[in-house]
Write the C-alpha cells for this entry.
Amino acid sequence: MAKIWVYGDPAQDSTGFKTTLEILTKARSLGGEVEAVVFGPGATEAAKAFGEHGATKVFAGDDAAFADTIGTVAATALHQLVQENQPNIILFPMSYDARDVASRLSAKTGSTLMSNATDFTGADGAKTAIFGGAQIVDVKFDGPDPKLVLIRPKSFDAEPSGGTAEVVSVSAPTVEGAKVVERHEQAASGPKLEDASVIVSGGRGLQDPSNFKLLEDLAALIPGAAVGATRAVVDAGWVPYAMQIGQTGKTVKPKVYIAVGISGATQHIVGMKSSDRIVAINKDAEAPIFQLADLGIVGDALKVVPKLTEEVKARKG
Amino acid sequence: MNVLVLVKQIPDPNNPYQLANNRLKRDGGQNVLDPGDEFGVEAALQLTEANGGEVTVVSMGPESAMEAIRRALSMGAHKGVLISDDSLQGADALVTARVLAAAIKKTGFDLVIAGVESTDGSTGTVPGAIAELLGVPLASFAKHLEIKDTTLHIQRQTEKGYDDVESPLPAVLTVTAGVNEPRYPTFKGIMQAKSKPVEQLKVGDLGVSADEAKATQTVNEVTPAPARGAGEKFEDDGTGAAKVADFLKEAKVI
C-alpha cells in the first residue's frame, strides 16, 4: 500500500489551504496511507483541517524560518522527514513556494518531479492537461521514491471526511538561503477571484488601462462578482498581479466567466477553462476564446460592455 | 561580475503547438528564443552595464538552439554555451537541471538568471533544482532587482503582493515577465553576434553519467480532453449586450 504525502503551503493562506484540502480529498480516495507536511506560521493550526480531510498524521513546523527563507529550510527539513519515513509520493500544490521547495527536494533525492498535474492515479503516475486543456497526457514515473508532483488548484473538490490527525512537531534546521526582509500586501477589495461566482475579465482588447473601469462598473452590479485580467495586461502594468488569471496566476472556476477583449492564449485558458459557463466578447471572430465560449459576441468590447451594464441594471429592476 | 543567463529555444508560441511521438514537435516550424527568456537576458545586460562583467548565454537543446543563443548575443550578451546531445531528447526537468548545473559549474558564475518558467513546458522547476545542485540560494519570481555591494535585492512576486528578499552571491535568480523592457537587437548587434564565441558541449564533456541523463517520466498516452459543448456565436448587431444579459439572468447570477 502506497504512502502518500500531501504538502501544505502557508503562503496559500489567502485560500485557506484549499488546494491542499482538495489534494487530500483525492489522495484518501485512493485507499493508501495519507499523511501531510506543513511548514511555517500556522502549521499546527492547519493540521486540524488536514485531519478532517483524510490525513492520519501531520508533520507540522511552525517556525517562521520556514516561510522566511526561500526554499532551503523547508526543503532540508522535508528531505530529513523523507529519509526517516520513506513516502512513495509527495503531492504539492502548484504554488510559488511549494515549487521552490519541490524542485530543491528533487535535486536532493534524485526523484522525478512533475509540474502542472491535474490528476494522479497512484504512486507512479499522474495526468496533466496541455494545449490549454485540449489534450490529456498520462505520465508514468520511474526512478527513486518519493515521486514528486505539483498539482494545479481546483483539480478536485475538497470534502471533509471527519477524521483527526496525529500531529508531529518539526523544528526548523539552520540553513542559508535567500531571505524575506519585508512583506508587502496589496489591499484587496471585493470578493477574492478564487471565490467569486462571476468573473469579468479583461485583456489587451480593452486597448487602454482606463477601460478596466467599464469592467468594474459591470462587476459592481453583479452579486459576488470580481474583476480579473490576462498576463499581457498585468505585464504591461495596467492592473496588479493579484488580478492575473492563468498559468502564472490564479485558477478560477466561477459560475460565469465573462472574457472581454481576451483572445484566449493557452497561458490564460489554463486558469479559467473549468468555469461553469463562459461568455466571450471580442472583435476578432477567429479568436480561440470563442472555441470555449457558451455565448460569443463578436463586437467592440468598448461598446458592448457599457450597454451590458445598462441591460443588467434594467433586468435587476 | 560573471552573469550566466539560461535560455531555451521553443516553437513560436504564436503558432498552435503540435505533438510528434507524444512530445512537443520542435522541428519543421518556426522556432524562437522563449519570450520569457528575453527578460533574463535584459536583466543580465543591465547588471553588467552597471557593475561591469560579462554575460554568458547557456542553452540545452537541439543544434538549432544556436539560433536562440545568437538572438541573445545580438541583444548584447558576450558569449554562449550550447549543450546539444541526442541522448538528451525527452529530458525531464531534473535531467535538464543536472546538465545545465554541470555546464554552469564548468563555466563559473557569480549569478545565474533564468525566466520563471518556459513558455512551452511551464514546469518552472529547473532553476530551483539547479540552485540546489550548485549549493546556492534561489531568489525566485523577481519583478524588480538590484545588486548593492555583493547582495542581491529583489521584489519577489507573491500571491498577495510582493516580498523584499535579499540573497548573498553567488545565487540563482528567476525573473518574471515585466521585470524590464527587453531591448531589440540592433543591426550592429546582429552582425557582431555572428562572430561571438559559442562553446559547444556534449553530455560526456560535463561529467554527467548516462544514468543521471535518463528521464524518469515517460508518456503512456495522450488523449483528447472531453470537449466543451459548442456554444453560440453572434455578430454584434446592437443586441449583443442584451443577449449576454439574458444569459446571465438564465444562469441566475443576476
